[in-house]
Amino acid sequence: MRQAVGMDQGSSYDADIDRVIVSEEQIRDKTVELAKQVAEDYRRVDGVLLVGVLKGAVMFMADFARAMGRNGRSVEMEFMAVSSYGQRSTSSGVVRILKDLDRDIAGRHVIVVEDIVDSGLTLSWLLKYLASRSAASVEVVALLRKPDAIKVNIPVKYVGFDIPNEFVVGYGLDFAERYRELPYVGVLKPSVYARA
């Protein structure tokens, strides 16, 4: 999966990226594949509610919701904002709700849309929180997962890519609120976050 950062990307961030590990095309293809699988699994279920975790999941959430629609599934979208990172490059494990759900999810089939499963600590907390709100079911679709970084066993039914335990940015993932708009996922040079 290793490939050089293409200068045709035209980003001022190119010099900060060591290498691209998931290309724009790979993301697009995998999103379509995941949406097709989820749409099939939920074909007999009314009212699928996608819950995106701000801000990182926004890009994936939008593309995933559109792909679900192309597979004949209408979905509703809801957003939460939780924090366990702050300005750090690793999760603290202490979760704070910055923005809660705007609606009752009791009896709803919820699919949490995640950009990345890293330590799993935040996601583990979020799944318990959503279950406590009496959802009919709660599953997770994650674009990325770092198997070597996971600290808690959590059920992630749908995973796009397993990636190395390196600090990645792009396609919604950030460092200090930068790099989210990159169309690919790339490894950030350690020299960039060592300065912070």
Automatic annotation (TrEMBL):
<keyword id="KW-0808">Transferase</keyword>
<dbReference type="InterPro" id="IPR050408">
    <property type="entry name" value="HGPRT"/>
</dbReference>
<dbReference type="GO" id="GO:0000287">
    <property type="term" value="F:magnesium ion binding"/>
</dbReference>
<dbReference type="GO" id="GO:0032263">
    <property type="term" value="P:GMP salvage"/>
</dbReference>
<dbReference type="GO" id="GO:0046100">
    <property type="term" value="P:hypoxanthine metabolic process"/>
</dbReference>
<dbReference type="GO" id="GO:0000166">
    <property type="term" value="F:nucleotide binding"/>
</dbReference>
<comment type="pathway">
    <text>Purine metabolism; IMP biosynthesis via salvage pathway; IMP from hypoxanthine: step 1/1.</text>
</comment>
<feature type="domain" description="Phosphoribosyltransferase">
    <location>
        <begin position="28"/>
        <end position="175"/>
    </location>
</feature>
<dbReference type="InterPro" id="IPR005904">
    <property type="entry name" value="Hxn_phspho_trans"/>
</dbReference>
<dbReference type="GO" id="GO:0005829">
    <property type="term" value="C:cytosol"/>
</dbReference>
<dbReference type="InterPro" id="IPR000836">
    <property type="entry name" value="PRTase_dom"/>
</dbReference>
<keyword id="KW-0328">Glycosyltransferase</keyword>
<keyword id="KW-0660">Purine salvage</keyword>
<dbReference type="GO" id="GO:0052657">
    <property type="term" value="F:guanine phosphoribosyltransferase activity"/>
</dbReference>
<keyword id="KW-0479">Metal-binding</keyword>
<keyword id="KW-0460">Magnesium</keyword>
<dbReference type="GO" id="GO:0006166">
    <property type="term" value="P:purine ribonucleoside salvage"/>
</dbReference>
<protein>
    <recommendedName>
        <fullName>Hypoxanthine phosphoribosyltransferase</fullName>
        <ecNumber>2.4.2.8</ecNumber>
    </recommendedName>
</protein>
<dbReference type="GO" id="GO:0006178">
    <property type="term" value="P:guanine salvage"/>
</dbReference>
<keyword id="KW-0547">Nucleotide-binding</keyword>
<comment type="similarity">
    <text>Belongs to the purine/pyrimidine phosphoribosyltransferase family.</text>
</comment>
<comment type="pathway">
    <text>Purine metabolism; GMP biosynthesis via salvage pathway; GMP from guanine: step 1/1.</text>
</comment>
<dbReference type="GO" id="GO:0004422">
    <property type="term" value="F:hypoxanthine phosphoribosyltransferase activity"/>
</dbReference>
<dbReference type="GO" id="GO:0032264">
    <property type="term" value="P:IMP salvage"/>
</dbReference>
<keyword id="KW-0963">Cytoplasm</keyword>
<dbReference type="Pfam" id="PF00156">
    <property type="entry name" value="Pribosyltran"/>
</dbReference>
<dbReference type="InterPro" id="IPR029057">
    <property type="entry name" value="PRTase-like"/>
</dbReference>
